[in-house]
Design a protein that fits this description.
The complex is a heterodimer of chains A (about 400) and B (about 260). With about 400 residues, chain A is of the alpha/beta class. Helix content of chain A is about 40%, strand content about 15%. In chain A, strand 3, helix 3 and strand 4 form a beta-alpha-beta unit. Chain A is globular, with a radius of gyration of 20 Å. The N and C termini of chain A lie close together (about 5 Å). Chain B has a single domain, classed as Rossmann fold, CATH 3.40.50. Helices cover about 35% and strands about 20% of the residues of chain B. Chain B has 9 helices and 8 strands. An 8-stranded mixed beta sheet of chain B has the order 1-2-4-3-5-6-7-8, sandwiched between helices. The longest helix of chain B has 18 residues. The chains are: A alpha/beta (about 400), B alpha/beta (about 260). At the A-B interface, helix 10 of A face helix 6 of B.
């Protein structure tokens, strides 16, 4: 059956009216009012906690120096929810291990959450969007090498139980790796990574990781899933549907209008997420030389980003002004009545050849707490039972 | 284009002219724009201008990750030169490489020319000696880099895929070597007294990446250096004023021959 995960970026939307050309990296935190921020944190956590009753799993992520996402440490809400919830699974998608200087600390955080939650953690490792490079001040030109070395080290640290081992790699050096506690799940919690291209899908498939595909829509998703399935088979990993996840913005209502209104508010995530000062959009070495060469030719990274969202027939959509109808057409959003949502999801599911996890952005932008609760509740009552046939 | 072999390294680059050896070490970007100054210098020298490992179409072996590695690589090249040694010219990032070479050995270097060099930290921890080229808006970056950007900047839309890929690799490699600490070695300043070779420090009057003030500090920290400004030029005066820069280099070397 298909598993559903509720995801929110914990946006600090009260700052948005004050922003224009960049919502990230250079936005001063004087625009953040911690009293409002505290209310928002508690509210978002309440919505996740509700998921435990609704049978919807939980997904967090992290971004840095941005008003689009006030979750700057994905394991902090997870640590709270590990105790506050009892049943659902907890996906952190995830930890930007190429940008964190201490992989052992990541292994410790994940192991603790896995034990406290009694084995409900799913651990994500992310390369991070290009705008994360500047806040972390990590070298974009060797991000990939650092990411995979950190990945190898974390998994070895979490699966070694006989005392310290030595690690003297190109990027990380430890003479005594000995992680306490060990994880609750054996041999370690399931491993996820978000991907956005056939190349990154192939890298994940070679290692049998679960891939979360975000914002790739109707046009770009099939080739990504297909590249994954092909490589996974070659590498001896059966590409069962539970290896594949797709994220969509979901607005469910009692009427089509209500569902669309909710999706419209959540869609402010997509409208704001990519607004960043252009100099941070493609730090040197983040993309391949070939891809960067194409960006140089065609007027820069922002121009390249602007054509990533497309209608079913391949026309680019401006993400800053995208309507609900456009988002539905692009496969980014499933919205309307429960029947509408199921039908759109099923059509997408068939189009991409199936997948086992729906990453549901059930909160985004400035949709209210009441609407979010109703959105999640309606989804769980009216859509979720029908997903048993899928996945 | 020539292949410049140094040990196991095969570097893209150019060798031109006849005469005593001159090694030109390029900066982090606008490498192709050095053509005119290299042509001028080739009237008096045999000019070797390698593209550093990882830049342009030069390979970068896995083991080559730091400016130290570049310094040892070019010391290997210098070891093969005649006893009189070579003139070493370093621009921007290449100036940093040149300084790292010279603090190790000047045995095969007859003269050093630093053009708007990076590599050294003079200010406090909250002062930025070198403008953050990775965080500046494009317009401001161009204003700080060039006196008259429109005259020298290429139209990227007209370049071929090979050239564009070379530029993308230049930028990637500059970041690889210089991202953190940002375009300098915190330990380099204390060894600058070892640069015991006649040195000309050239600076673009309008450099907004590393200001002439930084250049004067660098000059003062070197045992045998003099400072000269190039008018109507930014961070790459040899690109904007190739003849003026070549004139200064020729005069400087002439003087030191006497």
């Amino acid at each position: 059956m298909m598993h559903t995960w509720h995801f929110s970026e914990m946006a600090y939307h009260p700052a948005w009216p004050h922003l224009d050309q960049s919502y990230r990296v250079i936005v001063p935190n004087r625009l953040y009012d911690p009293k409002i921020g505290a209310d928002l944190y508690h509210r978002y956590l309440d919505e996740w906690a509700l998921c435990d009753e609704l049978g919807i799993n939980i997904m967090t992520n992290e971004h840095h120096a941005t008003a689009t996402c006030s979750d700057s440490v994905c394991t902090i809400p997870m640590a709270i929810l590990a105790r506050e919830t009892k049943k659902v699974r907890l996906l952190a998608l995830g930890m930007p291990i190429g940008n964190r200087n201490d992989p052992i600390r990541v292994a410790e955080e994940y192991s603790m959450i896995d034990v406290i939650s009694r084995g409900r953690l799913e651990m994500g490792f992310v390369k991070g969007v290009p705008f994360e490079i500047s806040p972390a001040n990590t070298n974009p030109a060797d991000l990939s090498g650092r990411f995979w070395e950190a990945y190898d080290l974390i998994l070895k640290a979490m699966t070694s139980h006989d005392g310290p081992f030595n690690w003297e790699g190109a990027h990380f050096q430890y003479r005594s790796v000995n992680v306490w506690p060990r994880s609750y799940q054996e041999p370690h919690p399931p491993v996820w990574t978000p991907v956005g291209s056939t190349e990154s899908a192939t890298e994940a498939a070679a290692r049998g990781m679960v891939i979360g595909v975000l914002n790739t829509g109707w046009v770009r998703t099939p080739s990504i899933f297909e590249a994954y399935r092909k490589k996974a088979r070659e590498a001896g990993h059966e590409p069962t549907p539970d290896r594949l996840a797709y994220m969509a913005l979901i607005g469910v209502g009692r009427t089509r209008d209500e569902g669309h209104r909710r999706a419209d508010q959540i869609l402010d995530y997509s409208r704001t997420s990519g607004i960043v000062a252009p100099q941070f959009a493609n730090p040197p070495g983040y993309a391949s030389p070939r891809a960067t060469a194409q960006m140089l030719k065609s007027g820069g990274a922002m121009a390249a980003r602007a054509t990533r969202v497309q209608t079913k027939d391949g026309h680019p959509i401006n993400p800053r002004t995208m309507t609900v109808d456009e988002a539905i057409d692009a496969g980014l959003s499933f919205a309307g009545t429960p029947d509408d949502v199921y039908d759109q999801l099923k059509a997408f599911y068939d189009h991409v050849g199936g997948f086992g996890h729906l990453l549901m952005m059930g909160q985004g932008g400035h949709i209210s707490h009441e609407d979010t609760v109703d959105n999640l509740t309606l989804f769980s009552k009216e859509v979720l039972p029908r997903l048993k046939e899928l996945g | 284009m020539a292949e410049i072999d140094i040990g196991q390294y095969a570097l893209d680059g150019s060798i031109a002219g006849a005469g005593p050896p001159l090694l030109f070490l390029h900066g982090g970007d606008y490498v192709a724009q050095n053509g005119p100054v290299l042509d001028r210098l080739a009237r008096h020298w045999q000019v070797t201008a390698p593209r550093h490992p990882g830049f342009g179409h030069s390979e970068r072996p896995d083991g080559c990750r730091t400016v130290d590695d570049l310094a040892y690589l070019y010391l290997d090249w210098l070891d093969r030169q005649q006893d009189g040694g070579a003139v070493v010219v370093g621009s921007s990032f290449g100036g940093w490489v040149a300084l790292e070479i010279c603090v190790r050995s000047v045995a095969k270097i007859s003269g050093l020319v630093l053009i708007d060099s990076l590599g050294v930290k003079f200010g406090g921890r909250e002062e930025r000696d070198i403008a953050d080229v990775y965080a500046l808006p494009e317009d401001e970056l161009r204003r700080r880099t060039f006196f008259d950007a429109a005259r020298v900047l290429p139209d990227y839309a007209l370049l071929g895929d090979g050239e564009l890929t070379a530029i993308a690799r230049d930028r990637e490699a500059a970041a690889l070597y210089g991202w953190r600490p940002y375009m300098h070695n915190p330990g380099l300043r204390q060894w600058l007294h070892r640069v015991r070779v006649p040195t000309l420090v050239l600076w673009g009057d309008n450099d907004g990446i590393v200001t002439p003030d930084y250049g004067e500090k660098l000059c003062s920290a070197l045992p045998s250096a003099r400072f000269e400004r190039i008018a109507q030029a930014g961070h790459y005066p040899q690109i904007e004023r190739p003849d003026a820069v070549a004139d200064r280099i020729e005069a400087f070397v002439q003087e030191n021959r006497r």
